[in-house]
Amino acid sequence: MVTIRDIAEATGVSATTVSNVIHGKDNRVSAETIQKINEAIKELGYVPNMSARSLVSSSSRVIGFVNHVITRENTNFMEDPFHSAAIGAIEATLRENGYFLMLRTVENAEELVTFLQRWNMDGLFFTGIFKDKFFDSLAGLHIPVVLLDSYVHTSGFCNVGLEDFTGSYNATKHLIEKGHRQIGFASPNIKDGGVLQERFLGYKSALAEAGIPFEKGIVFQQEMDLNSCRQICNDIVEHPELTGLVVSADIMAAGIMTGLKEKGKRIPDDISIVGFDDISLAQLVDPPLTTIHQDMNLKGRLAVDFMLQLLNGKTLDTTEITLSTRLVERSSVKDLR
Amino acid sequence: MVTIRDIAEATGVSATTVSNVIHGKDNRVSAETIQKINEAIKELGYVPNMSARSLVSSSSRVIGFVNHVITRENTNFMEDPFHSAAIGAIEATLRENGYFLMLRTVENAEELVTFLQRWNMDGLFFTGIFKDKFFDSLAGLHIPVVLLDSYVHTSGFCNVGLEDFTGSYNATKHLIEKGHRQIGFASPNIKDGGVLQERFLGYKSALAEAGIPFEKGIVFQQEMDLNSCRQICNDIVEHPELTGLVVSADIMAAGIMTGLKEKGKRIPDDISIVGFDDISLAQLVDPPLTTIHQDMNLKGRLAVDFMLQLLNGKTLDTTEITLSTRLVERSSVKDLR
DNA sequence: TATAATGAGTTAAACGTTAAACTTTTTTGC
DNA sequence: GCAAAAAAGTTTAACGTTTAACTCATTATA
Q1: ∠A133-A137-A140 over CA atoms, to 5°?
Q2: Fewer CB atoms < 10 Å away: N or C end of chain B?
């Protein structure tokens, strides 16, 4: 391993001077020396040791991307298709700015803080359900925190979210406007404080507004895989009164469509379906899925923008961005009027 | 920040002793002292500083997950659905074993090595196209390297791959056996040395074996998004002689199916399609897609198994695993006999 | 001309942890 | 009862980098 001292010796100069050149504090160094040092760096193949740097400067240039999971069972970090799109954008931008990205799932505040402290993290992207006590733990760390799709009662952290409530409200309202009155709700397991809960509340709110009584029996919760969707379909067909279904995730909507078709149901003739997310799949299923569109890539870009501004010590004019959604009409909803 | 010295002072013992306790070298420490130290650690909330540890021990407990991209334009780290499934499994297992995961795209060997050196990485997962010179650069680092879906002429690295050639060969042969003779090939842009090239070669090999001349004009290359697929469809319909199409990725197959249906083509009546990967989407499109199945999650699990064995200094009985594929017949292929 | 300011560096200490080489006391074997 | 071994530590140096505080010429200012 070649160190800064090797470069110093090779150029007949002190380690400090080399360090200064590397960090662009060249005003203290002559042009000639700068050149000699840069040549030596290239020649000897010097690569800065981040551990040493991090140790002395207590800034590591590492940003954590942490997903809070309630339990690790059956949890795949990337299960949410959103993550894939966002992480791609985040990695690219961070790299361009000289930062590094570390991935992690955590189950609680202690794990989270320990993780951040161990590495002297410079920043944190947080996804998943944000509990109140996370705030206290994180605030003490004094690092930029950007929340992604996390619902928070009160926090000073940056937050990039989505109008989950309104989106789901609009999905439901769309069915109502098309003359539907018996509308079910299918979703991956709803956890308190998560996006799915918001989407559930949006559904309920639209029903209430239209004077349609909410019925527990037509809320279907299950895992997202195809087999679970097939199970849900067993329940759905036991409610022949249903003419419409709001599904809080496109992946699941697609699974349910497949399951219903297997049972001989026609979509949208027998039952209309509205999804959520507008992942590329939505255009590919048959019939193409009417769904609530969100721009996942943009969410990632906005999040990393926030992060960079915070890292550069800029003061922000906004700390919260809630992206709006938009209904994309395709062919999975029948007009009953 | 509370350090190992704070713990030492609090318990009236030396830093080394604390370090020993933390690392389970307790044979040198009395039970009583161990307990006192552990209590102090808990009480004061001590968290080891990985930078310091890494600096002195030249082992960081960080594993890199690096994706080699030819050019960063239009490249999303997670574009390949495989990555999502694999990274989930890898993160979980690494964490359980006290390792950390850093994500990165690189464009060349230099970037790769610099990345690994900066952080004193303990191991590397590598995906994407593996160039010969990568080997020389990596070998000098003396860290475990596990290749994922990378084709390599000769290397001492562990390798978890897939029978891409055979899978694609079987996909093509399936069409031939069903009486097809005019079979096109659609794929995301084929790069030398990648999995897509293998799949392309498998296609050609099956044609050759059946005595069907290969025609350049019916190989269609494009990006994977829906609009690019629609473009491909413009070209495909200009070859009305085609009765079958091998598509080297399910995502693309789904896009092409949509595009073709928009143009009034019936699948499989007008044209039969075989995909590759068997992502969940394959069951959800209409008609359900006949495709080549691979177990992406297993790939990730095997890769991380390799890594852990290498990290633990175990000698391996195998260093190469090539997963086999299997044709899953659904409804996108018509029997012409 | 004396003094201040600038340019181009250097030295020494510090960051938190670990490894190697010691030390001191107690126990064991014969 | 004495040497050897084990138990339970300690001391010191080192890992590679940065930062704060110096130094020593040379140039500019009044």
Answers
A1: 140
A2: C
